[in-house]
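Wait, mind explaining this?

_____
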Amino acid sequence: MRQGIDLLDFWRGQITPRRMRVLLEHLPADALTLRKVHPKDAAIESWNVTDYLLARLIDMFGVANFKAYTPVTRPGEVFEARAEADRVAAFLQAQAERNRQREAEARKASMTPAKTRRS
């Protein structure tokens, strides 16, 4: 697509309505005009498959490292990302609590003297 088209040419009669519609329908996702008119849609469309896969990979490494991790926010997913972060945090806290309980039980079992059988 050509860049630098003067939109005033439409009002001057140098661009037909059909040509104007085609130009607007095929704007690239990062076009300033598209971002101003539809900011949410432009942000969503600006992410390609590679961006989503990279964000997913970052999320997986964050969770795998067992630390409090906030997932990468994707376009249009602000509330979903917060909910996912809350779920991940709750999961990690529950897992840490289970590990603490198991360690406490293991310490308690190792401190209890073993009962011997009389034959």
